[in-house]
């Protein structure tokens, strides 16, 4: 058994754990998490996962190793639904929204802390979470201000060295401002960019071509063979329909996101401001970039420090003791 809290962070849901309650050995830790969330199983019926990448996430939180720069450390782990695999290749900005509330809940910071400085262990990036009021179970507004996110995974904001490349006949912008993303126009894939996630996932020809682009982009971005990796993501963009800056459809990496990830949104918004990028035609001359997605919109604003701030919400759903699936012993 293990103490566990479940929080909705932004448009994702995850299991939040204290690092002190987990095995120190990564292999033992990952085995425990697979059993805790019920993987591999498409329904995750025997665990806390929700049968989808957006609901099969884990946040591991601990006191900061360097208290001078952060209050807590946050390691994000993606537990694959259909494979016995736990990935630490990337951070998750939606789950990040729940770190401050979880830190207050567990006494890692003061229970009334208005700001929580967080180090994202996956990338080493720093973010300040400004927390609104709210008791456990109430929705809490969380403003996330990112610092020094450019190139946090690939080493450079534009890891190919170009603001625009062409892969498989498709113009793309490969960018990493906290999340490696391949930005491409939906029209170049023969799409309107307003298809539903179900329609996009059912399009086998689209899936094959998008994956060819993603695999080659991974090589160009210095990530090597990304066939079994969750990055880079691919975001297809198009003209907005609801007053936003542009519309997005993001793949993570094969399922179509019903919204858009926080750090992925920051990367796409940054691309909008880069002259010559695939997204540059949608620039409005303001710091606010409003991204439409399948279930709503996502606002991000560039900050004077060169970072980006986004507004999310988080809510504690449950807190108690979790019982992982027992080990199978021969």
Outline the structure in words.
The chain has six helices and 16 strands. It is an alpha+beta fold and 330 residues long. The protein folds into two domains: 2-146 and 312-322, Roll (Diaminopimelate Epimerase, Chain A, domain 1), CATH 3.10.310; 165-306, Diaminopimelate Epimerase, Chain A, domain 1 (Roll). The longest helix is centred in the middle third of the chain and has 17 residues, at 204-220. The protein starts with a strand and ends in an 8-residue tail after the last strand. The mean pLDDT is 94. Keywords: Isomerase. InterPro entries: PrpF-like (IPR007400). Belongs to the PrpF family.
What secondary-structure arrangement, pairings included, does this model have?
Elements: E1 2-9, E2 12-18, H1 26-37, E3 57-63, E4 72-79, E5 86-87, H2 93-96, H3 99-105, E6 115-120, E7 125-131, E8 140-147, E9 165-167, E10 170-176, E11 180-185, H4 197-201, H5 204-220, E12 233-238, E13 246-251, H6 262-272, E14 288-293, E15 296-302, E16 308-322
Parallel strand pairs: 2-3, 4-6, 11-12, 13-14
Antiparallel strand pairs: 1-2, 1-16, 3-4, 4-5, 6-7, 7-8, 8-16, 9-10, 10-11, 12-13, 14-15, 15-16
Keywords: Isomerase
Protein name: 4-oxalomesaconate tautomerase
Pfam family, one: PrpF
Tally of strands:
16
- End-to-end separation in angstroms reads 21 Å
β content, as a range? Answer: 25-35%
* Average predicted local confidence, pLDDT: 94
- The CATH topology label of the largest domain is Diaminopimelate Epimerase, Chain A, domain 1
Q: What would you call the structural class? A: alpha+beta
Instruction: Specify Rg, calculated over alpha carbons.
Output: 19 Å
Low-pLDDT windows of residues: none
Overall body shape: globular
Q: What's the CATH architecture of the largest domain?
A: Roll
| CATH H-level superfamily of the largest domain | Diaminopimelate Epimerase, Chain A, domain 1
CATH class of the largest domain: Alpha Beta
User: How much helix is in the residues?
Assistant: 10-25%
Q: How do the strands of the widest beta sheet line up side by side?
A: 1-2-3-4-6-7-8-16
How many strands, what sense, and barrel or not for the largest sheet? 8 strands, mixed, barrel
* Whole-number total of structural domains: 2
Order of helices and strands: EEHEEEHHEEEEEEHHEEHEEE
Number of helices: 6
Protein name: 4-oxalomesaconate tautomerase
Enzyme class: isomerase
Family: Belongs to the PrpF family.
Organism: Actinomadura macrotermitis
């Amino acid at each position: 058994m293990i103490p566990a809290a479940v929080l909705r962070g932004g448009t994702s849901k995850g299991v939040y754990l204290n690092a002190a309650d987990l095995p120190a050995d990564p292999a033992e830790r990952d085995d425990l998490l697979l059993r805790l969330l019920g993987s591999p199983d498409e329904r995750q019926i025997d665990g806390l996962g929700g049968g989808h990448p957006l609901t099969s996430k884990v946040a591991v939180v601990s006191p900061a190793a360097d208290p001078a720069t952060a209050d807590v450390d946050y390691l994000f782990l993606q537990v694959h639904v259909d494979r016995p695999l736990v990935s630490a290749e990337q951070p998750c900005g939606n789950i990040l929204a729940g770190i401050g509330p979880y830190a207050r809940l567990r006494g890692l910071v003061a229970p009334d802390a208005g700001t929580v400085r967080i180090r994202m262990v996956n990338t080493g990036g720093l973010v300040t979470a400004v927390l609104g009021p709210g008791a456990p179970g109430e929705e809490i507004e969380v403003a996330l201000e990112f610092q020094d996110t450019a190139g946090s995974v690939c080493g450079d904001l534009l890891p190919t060295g170009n603001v625009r490349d062409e892969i498989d006949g498709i113009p793309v912008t490969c960018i990493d401002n906290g999340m490696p993303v391949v930005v491409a126009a939906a029209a170049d894939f023969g799409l309107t960019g307003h298809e539903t996630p179900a329609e996009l996932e059912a399009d086998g020809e689209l899936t094959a071509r998008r994956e060819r682009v993603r695999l080659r982009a991974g090589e160009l971005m210095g990530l090597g063979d990304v066939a079994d990796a969750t990055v880079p993501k691919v975001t297809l963009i198009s003209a907005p329909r609801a007053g936003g800056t542009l519309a997005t459809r993001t793949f993570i990496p094969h399922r179509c996101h019903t919204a858009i990830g926080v750090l992925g949104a920051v990367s796409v918004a940054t691309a909008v401001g880069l002259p010559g990028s695939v997204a540059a035609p949608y620039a409005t001359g303001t710091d606010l970039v409003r991204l439409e997605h399948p279930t709503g919109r996502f606002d991000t604003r560039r900050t004077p420090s060169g970072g980006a701030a986004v507004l999310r919400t988080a809510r504690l759903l449950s807190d108690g003791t979790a019982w992982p699936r027992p080990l199978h012993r021969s």
